[in-house]
From TrEMBL:
UniProt protein name: PaaI family thioesterase
Domain Thioesterase: 62-135
InterPro entries (alphabetical): ACOT13 (IPR039298), HotDog_dom_sf (IPR029069), PAAI_dom (IPR003736), Thioestr_dom (IPR006683)
Protein source organism: Streptomyces pseudovenezuelae
CDD domains per record: PaaI_thioesterase
Length: 163
């Protein structure tokens, strides 16, 4: 049985995009714990900053590769949802990801630049570059699906606790 898509106004689309932007920083526990900041959230791409912390390191002053991989996943999925047509659903899941580490991720912060390169009916593709101190250290491709409705879309998101 096929469920008819819900028609959303332009304002409702904007509100959902804004809600997901806030969720990326404050609503996802992992992102909060890593202190991820969204510095750009547009339909044509996103920029996400991950500050260095010893708890995220592999070696002194170097981000762990798994953390860089998680940043790629977070930014790639963000690039898809930031320009998504929510009449097609809001439940996002990563189905595939590839990462190429190009240099040690050494610096005060890692910055992911992501853009959605193909939007499909349910399957969407994003490319992500990660830079530390202005130097390209990793590149990735993220494939996500969006279908169905994510529970809680539009619910209040708690403010960040500045500790």
């Amino acid at each position: 049985m096929t469920v008819a898509a819900r028609t959303l106004t332009d304002q409702e689309q904007r509100e959902r995009r804004a809600w997901f932007r806030a969720r990326w920083e404050r609503g996802v526990a992992f992102n909060r714990r890593c202190r991820i900041r969204v510095t750009r959230w547009e339909a044509d791409g996103v920029e996400i900053v991950l500050p260095y912390a010893e708890s995220l390191s592999a070696h002194e002053d170097v981000f762990h590769g798994g953390v860089i991989s998680a940043l790629i996943d977070t930014a790639g999925a963000g690039a898809v949802i930031a320009g998504h047509d929510f009449t097609k659903g809001s439940r996002l899941s990563t189905v595939s990801m590839s990462v190429q580490y190009l240099a040690p991720a050494r610096g005060r912060e890692a910055v992911a630049y992501a853009r959605c390169v193909r939007r499909g009916g349910r399957v969407h593709f994003a490319d992500v570059d990660v830079r530390t101190d202005g130097r390209l250290c990793a590149r990735g491709q993220v494939v996500v699906t969006i279908s169905g409705e994510r529970p809680g879309v539009g619910d209040p998101i708690e403010p960040l606790n500045e500790e």
